[in-house]
Amino acid sequence: MAVEYMEHDLKEIIKTMKQPFSPSEIKCLMLQLLEGVKNLHDNSVLHRYLKTSNLLLNSRGELKILHSGLARKHHGNLLYSAPELLLGAKHYSTAMDMWSVGCIMAELLSNEPLFNGSGTSAEQIYHICRILGTPNETTWPGFSKLTGVGLKVVNFAKQYQEKLLRKKFPATSFTGLPFLSDAGFDLLNRLLTYDPEKRITADAALDHDWFREVPLPKSKEFMPDFHALNAQTDRRKRRVMKRLNPDIEETSSTNSSTDAQIYP
């Protein structure tokens, strides 16, 4: 009998975890994400909707990317949108996906979105400026020529000259903040670089020193088993359905693998 490997979107897993993923687990997930994104970019494909709810993780520790045509496009997508998109750039590149990868890395570290705006481009830019500092022509050549609505917010946010990213992910932590080595912070910082031309590529990120330092990436077969999470989510869904329709029979259900198109 074939073994069924159930899948959940990564957002759901993060929401139900009591503790964030360990550094070695994050490295395992990031390597798989970067390999998938590299495969897309090598084939001249932009995803445009990378976020944790568009990533699937199965009980074998395998991470898969939902096809951009089937991805959940609208809800929460601004939280992972590159600043060039938010500021109305007419031309964009694979760098937009790499920004989203950086947002996903930060979320894996802290169990919450890094730039948690309320749903408008202007507020999202404000949150980015508050953490990364306000961009200028030195950090982002050509920035002042952008005409998006968020530009007014950038002008308002000029007081944010200090970058707070390292404070959110210190090298060591005794306060419960997620900590990140110098090499890990370098990768995160290069993913979340304002200038798209200077943002690290998927190919270069896969070769980053962070993946070669201790702790090494965990093997997929040793990643946490989320069968219990699947069962818990199924029970929760059945309880909700029961409340909505008291006549529904609360029978056990099988959580089958998604049939959505995915990238390896």
From TrEMBL:
Record keyword Zinc present: no
Keywords: ATP-binding, Kinase, Nucleotide-binding, Serine/threonine-protein kinase, Transferase
The organism of origin for this protein: Nicotiana attenuata
One GO molecular-function entry: protein serine/threonine kinase activity
Protein kinase domain span: 1-211
Name of the protein in its database record: Cyclin-dependent kinase g-2
Transmembrane segments: none
Keyword Oxidoreductase found: no
InterPro entries associated with the record: CDK, Kinase-like_dom_sf, Prot_kinase_dom
Domain of life: Eukaryota
Comp. bias intervals (Polar residues): 251-264
Entry-linked SMART domains: S_TKc (SM00220)
Region (Disordered): 243-264
GO biological process terms on file: regulation of mitotic cell cycle
Any single GO CC term annotated in Swiss-Prot or TrEMBL for this entry: nucleus
